[in-house]
Amino acid sequence: MSRKKVAVVGAGLAGLASSIRLANEGFHVDLFEKNPYTGGKMTVYEQDGFRFDAGPSLFTLPHLVDEVFELSGKNPRDYFNYTQHSTACKYFWQNGKELVLKSNMEHNIKAIESSFGLGAALSAEAYFNDSKKKYELTEPFFLQQSLHRFKTFLDSRVFKVLGSILRLGLFSTLNDVNKQYFQDEELVQLFNRYATYNGSSPYKTPGIMQMINHLEHGKGTFLPIGGMHEIAKSLTSLAREVGVNIHLNQNVEEVCPDGTIINALFVCGRKKFYDAIILNTDVHFAYQHLLDKKIKRPKKTLAQDPSTSALIFYWGINRDFDQLDLHNIFFSKDYKQEFEQIENNSNFWIDPTIYVNISSKIETADAPAGCENWFVMINVPANEGQDWEKITNDLRDNVLDRLSAELKVNLRQHVSTERILNPMMIEQLTSSKGGALYGTSSNDRKAAFLRHPNKKLSGYKGLYFCGGSAHPGGGIPLCLLSGKLAANWCIEDIHE
């Protein structure tokens, strides 16, 4: 009896994870990737002696990577290693206030008390505890299972979630929740920023997103030895070992139905037949460019707001900055105005919040001696034809001015090499609509928890979805979980 065949389109993290799980079940797996590399957004740049992780810079829940290796009967440490970094992030406000938070609640409460007083510290303690409760209550249900499957709602844990629904923050915004806890505008702004972890606005996303901060402060932040790209690199090695056939520079042009069964695709002009197909692509791209026009579009899902994109400067800096850490945030003066401007495509470049990641603080080989590799990211709207050349030039000037003032140095004199990535370029490289980093935003309850399902549910069989624009969402942990959900659903259906 011949092995069942599954095609996976897109070799980002979700595509790699789903391919490995399928191969472990004995399927013949073909993984197609249009680019000459795997990892999707998780790629790497090297320039003038500096190494830059091009995409994700924050690593949480490393056990989800380990799980893929363990499922394959491998010791993760033979492929992939990481260190925990005690400092979660350093925060800087333009009024001169600074705050260092760690993956240590006791430290964080004391740090907040030192900067903002006892009342703020007591509020922070309650806030952290509430974040933990929300995460522990919802994680097994919302993240580990598909909300589009009837059997999910037969899980006894569902009733516990439903019984707590009023205090989960589903009916208020993250900003509303944060203002209930904190009087200081700086602290509200700090905890509002967690909306950006899935490309959303804190003034729209549900308050339950409060639980995201627990990943940093409760679970910890980590850095792979060798850089973030090692996650994709190690999973690629594992995929090949377990028998996944990885086809690079192979552009899938069309996914085709035979009646109500989706069982074929055209790749580089050739038609190939499969028992199932998993799309690790942006769902907008899938419906617009890959799927037969006869296949019904999920209009409400596709109408959801795209997540924010990013404008990223990769700067080789020819000196050290001892006052900076691995993760650093320089806040705008008016956070609400910043998000309104992003939403309306107006003046978001004047006073942006600036994120600076410096992996050479830990991975010293990422920069020449006495130098640092700066990953400087600003949240911007998805590409809709804006003049990115002008915006980039204006943003670059404003960012350099801001950071020079904050750090009391003429930063322009210390940028020895530069590379730039804008939303239009992200869109071209990743086929994500508008270069949206996380697919759809989570700017309402439906978009937050009912993203595109991991299986095509109506009219057709054999088609599955994973990645940042499918359930449960974007970012490293959620993409790994998305790959898991899609693969498991596919395996169940084939074995029926």
List keywords for this structure.
16 helices; single chain; 7-stranded mixed sheet; 5-stranded parallel sheet; alpha/beta; 496 residues; 36% helix; FAD/NAD(P)-binding domain; globular
Number of strands: 19
Largest sheet: 7 strands, mixed
Corresponding CATH superfamily of the domain at 5-43 and 63-83 and 226-305 and 439-495: FAD/NAD(P)-binding domain
What would the CATH topology of the domain at 5-43 and 63-83 and 226-305 and 439-495 be? FAD/NAD(P)-binding domain
Distance between the termini: 16 Å
pLDDT averaged residue by residue: 92
- Radius of gyration, CA atoms, in whole angstroms: 22 Å
The order of strands across the largest sheet is 7-6-15-16-17-14-18
Residues in β-strands, percent:
15-25%
Q: Judging by the overall fold, what is the CATH architecture of the domain at 5-43 and 63-83 and 226-305 and 439-495?
A: 3-Layer(bba) Sandwich
The count of helical stretches stands at 16
Stretches where pLDDT falls below 50 for ≥5 residues? Answer: none
The secondary-structure class comes to: alpha/beta
Q: In percent, how helical is the residue content?
A: 25-40%
* The level-1 CATH class of the domain at 5-43 and 63-83 and 226-305 and 439-495: Alpha Beta
Q: Globular, elongated, flat, extended or rod-shaped: what is the shape?
A: globular
